[in-house]
């Protein structure tokens, strides 16, 4: 791994391990499903909208049953895998960089009686410690953007998937026609040099033998989601005093505004990909 690529991994781990980020994502973003939501209306609460994304991703899968092995790369607090364990009864691996998030994940799995079905693994998804053709489903929500080696991540997904297995994913992306430089405020805030695009993921997946089963474009939901998170952050700011630093709150409000502006200008993309391994 190059110095730059390792730096991206270290930055993501350190960020999500921080007390500020942990309290923000747990108390503001949703705590269970800390991912972009599918909103029924502009003022819907974040948690049900985020869970709706999970249920829609499940609906798209055809290889999901109680005997399936599922790997979630960048699992966050593990809400998606708890949903699968509860509703399908399959065995899940929740792989995630942040040891702090993983501690919360393990505790919630125990509290909900699901720890026998979910393994929480502290690891990067850029190099997966699993054999070839091992999983029936690989799952990822809004995580691959943090990698400096996105093509390598998809190559690892293709390697560990069984033939006929499915990869379902979402990721905040640049629009395919995004002009150079316009997303610099977003990239600077999250310490990235670029975002993926729908075209990048489709082309890369195809080159790895992952056939496109249809990209559902929900790009307006990205703008809506970051707007709702910013509104909730403003509303909850008094309650966050002493838990989240004033500097973090200020920077997060500005960063969320950049995402909202980028989405409104048509420079961002988001949706649900489904691929099947040949």
Question: Can you walk through the features of this model?
Answer:
The protein has 10 helices and 10 strands. It is an alpha/beta fold. Helix content is 47%, strand content 18%. Strands 1, 2, 3, 4, 5, 7, 8 and 10 form an 8-stranded mixed sheet that branches. It has a two-stranded antiparallel sheet with strand order 6-9. Helix 4 links the parallel strand 1 and strand 2 (91-96). The protein has a single domain (3-277), classed as Vaccinia Virus protein VP39 (Rossmann fold), CATH 3.40.50.
The H/E string reads HHHEHEHEEHEEHHEEHHEE
Fraction of helical residues:
40-55%
CATH superfamily name?
Vaccinia Virus protein VP39
Described by its quaternary structure, the protein is single chain
Detail the topology: elements first, then pairings.
Blueprint: H1 3-17, H2 19-29, H3 46-60, E1 69-73, H4 79-87, E2 91-96, H5 99-111, E3 118-122, E4 135-141, H6 150-160, E5 161-170, E6 173-174, H7 184-189, H8 198-207, E7 210-212, E8 216-217, H9 219-240, H10 246-264, E9 268-269, E10 271-277
Parallel strand pairs: 1-2, 1-4, 2-3, 4-5
Antiparallel strand pairs: 5-10, 6-9, 7-10, 8-10
Helix pairs in contact: 2-9, 3-4, 9-10
């Amino acid at each position: 791994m190059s110095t730059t690529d390792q730096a991206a991994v270290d930055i993501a781990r350190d960020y999500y391990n921080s007390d500020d980020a942990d309290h923000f994502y747990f108390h503001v973003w949703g705590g269970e499903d800390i991912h972009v939501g599918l909103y029924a209306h502009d003022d819907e609460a974040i948690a049900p909208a985020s869970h709706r994304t999970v249920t829609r991703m499940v609906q798209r899968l055809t290889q999901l049953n109680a005997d399936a092995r599922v790997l979630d790369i960048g699992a966050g607090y593990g809400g998606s895998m708890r949903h699968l364990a509860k509703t399908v009864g399959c065995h899940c691996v929740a792989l995630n960089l942040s040891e702090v998030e993983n501690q919360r994940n393990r505790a919630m799995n125990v509290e909900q009686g699901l720890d026998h079905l979910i393994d929480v693994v502290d690891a990067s998804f850029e190099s997966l410690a699993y054999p070839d053709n091992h999983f029936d489903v690989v799952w990822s929500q809004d995580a691959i953007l943090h990698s400096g080696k996105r093509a390598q991540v998809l190559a690892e997904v293709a390697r560990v998937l069984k033939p006929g297995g499915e990869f379902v994913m979402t990721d905040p992306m640049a629009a395919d026609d995004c002009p150079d430089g316009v997303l610099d405020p977003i990239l600077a805030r999250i310490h990235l040099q670029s975002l993926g695009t729908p075209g990048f993921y489709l082309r890369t997946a195809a080159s790895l033998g992952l056939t496109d089963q249809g990209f559902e474009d929900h790009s307006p939901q990205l703008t809506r989601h970051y707007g709702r998170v910013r509104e909730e952050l403003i509303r909850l700011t008094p309650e966050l005093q002493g838990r989240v630093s004033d500097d973090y709150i200020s920077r997060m409000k500005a960063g969320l505004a950049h995402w909202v502006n980028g989405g409104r200008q048509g420079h961002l993309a988001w949706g649900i990909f489904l691929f099947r391994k040949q």
